[in-house]
Specification:
Shape: globular
Strand content: 5-15%
CATH architecture of the largest domain: 3-Layer(aba) Sandwich
Order of helices and strands: HHEHEHHHHHHEHEHHHHHEEEHEE
Number of domains: 2
Largest sheet: 7 strands, mixed
Number of helices: 16
Helix content: 40-55%
CATH superfamily of the largest domain: Vaccinia Virus protein VP39
Number of strands: 9
Bound molecules: S-adenosylmethionine
Distance between the termini: 32 Å
Radius of gyration: 22 Å
Length: 416
């Protein structure tokens, strides 16, 4: 695409996570790096026959759910246990009886919190928790979380649905500006909700929203698997006809940082060190301990190399750039990981399968990192055919940042 045509592209909020908010189960919980279900729908509606779809980077299970609604079978892998849990709940089948029993459980939970009939759980060890919730709200959340434990069975679908509603409530009642945890905090005294508001009502409304989505069961199936997309042959069974995914971007966005309130409250995390360790095993993670590990990271001898990548790394590493060395390591590791991923992908692709990678470029110290071009090079090296790279939207006000659909066909490459 020419530069002029690219510049005419709009930011398109409908191509971002914002579109998902009122789209049934897709809107249950927000994750900023989630892509819009609209992107997936536009790709998937080109295919009529039922297919085996793969999403190696599940996130909030947008692909799996959309594929299942279109009658396909989708397998998706994810390295964050909280997202595996969420994806499994989002793609599950819920009967009318189950939805009715969850509604009754919600009434019991709200009642028991109101009458102080449950012993509140201890607040989770979130750093500076008082910045997130005023004391009274925190007490309410601790009681609500306990009420859910008491009124639903461990591991039951009722509990999963109530906990998803709980996650919505805890963000709605928080001080996080714009009502989202990736944003900065509001100043004291500027609470989103007045302190006298009925917090039980907020939760009941969240349960209602979640149950509306639960009533919309997909025709096809979605299987969400805990696993590493750098090692797909060990993680998934069989071969796939279509891959639709958005891998982590090389932009230092930490999924753990954004998900930490949910993960602490639901018991997926209980200290900062583990949060950093989880970020380190994810591709593109740099939070907490992950940052210091990058300092010592050495590029393996058999890593992906290309003059465009070398030039970019050199620009980032430049001595004028304060953290240039560590950020160059970050980018080099990102491509090492993605190269491992693409190498493992070809072992699980059917002949004539198609892949779509939705990915954005980045900049570091004004040096443009053309991630999409380097994806094209990796796919060419592996023997993919009909490789195409189409800009689909402008990312933000920075004129050089775009999102692309990098697509290709696999016919067995030079390996068969
Ligand atoms: C851009 S997000 C995917 C968003 C997703 N398309 C959605 O709509 O929610 C990338 C995801 O890849 C996951 N991830 C990172 N490294 C991974 C790995 N090695 N194996 C599997 N998943 C990984 C991250 O935890 C994150 O959830």
């Amino acid at each position: 695409m020419s530069t002029v045509a690219r510049e005419q592209l709009r930011q398109r909020a409908d191509y971002t996570h914002k579109f998902n908010a009122n789209t049934g189960r897709h809107g249950w919980l927000r994750l900023t790096p989630a892509y819009s279900v609209k992107i997936v729908e536009e790709i998937i509606s080109r295919y009529e026959d039922p297919m085996r779809v793969l999403d190696p980077f599940c996130g909030t299970a947008t692909t799996a759910l959309s594929a299942a609604y279109h009658g396909h079978g989708c397998v998706t892998t994810e390295i964050n246990p909280f997202l595996v849990w969420l994806g499994q709940a989002k793609t599950a089948q819920y009967s009318d009886a189950l939805i009715a029993s969850t509604r009754r459980a919600c009434v019991r939970v709200v009642e028991s919190v109101k009458c102080k009939a449950v012993e509140p759980m201890k607040a989770p060890p979130i750093h500076n928790i008082e910045r997130w919730w005023p004391e009274e709200t925190l007490e309410f959340l601790c009681a609500l979380r306990s009420g859910i434990e008491v009124e639903s069975k461990e591991g039951s679908p009722e509990r999963a649905l109530l906990l998803i509603a709980f996650c919505r409530t805890l963000i709605e009642l928080s001080n996080a500006a714009f009502n989202h945890q990736s944003m900065s905090f509001k100043d004291n005294g500027q609470l989103h909700f007045p302190l006298d508001m009925d917090m039980g009502y907020v939760f009941s409304e969240d349960v209602r929203f979640v149950l509306d989505g639960a009533g919309e069961n997909p025709e096809g199936s979605g299987q969400v698997i805990y696993g590493d997309s750098r090692n797909l042959s060990e993680t998934v069974d069989g071969v796939f006809d279509l891959v639709i995914t958005s891998p982590p971007y090389a932009n230092r966005m930490s999924y753990i940082r954004e998900l930490r309130p949910y993960m602490y409250w639901l018991g997926f995390l209980d200290n900062g060190r583990d949060a950093g360790e989880l970020d380190w095993i994810a591709i593109g993670g740099t939070w907490g301990v992950a940052t210091s590990k990058l300092t010592d990271w050495e590029r393996p001898t058999k890593s992906f190399e290309h003059p465009l990548l070398d030039r970019t790394l050199k620009g980032i590493r430049h001595h004028d750039n304060k953290n240039g060395r560590i950020l160059a390591n970050y980018v080099a590791k990102y491509f090492d990981d993605m190269w491992k991923h693409f190498n493992s992908l070809i072992s699980v692709l059917n002949d004539n399968s198609e892949i779509h990678y939705i990915i954005g470029n980045s900049t570091f110290y004004g040096v443009l990192l053309s991630v999409e071009k380097l994806y094209v090079v990796m796919l060419e090296r592996l023997g993919f055919e009909d490789i195409d790279c189409r800009a689909i939207r402008k990312r933000n006000s920075k004129k050089e940042l775009f999102e692309f659909d990098v697509s290709a066909r696999w016919t067995g490459g030079r390996w068969r």
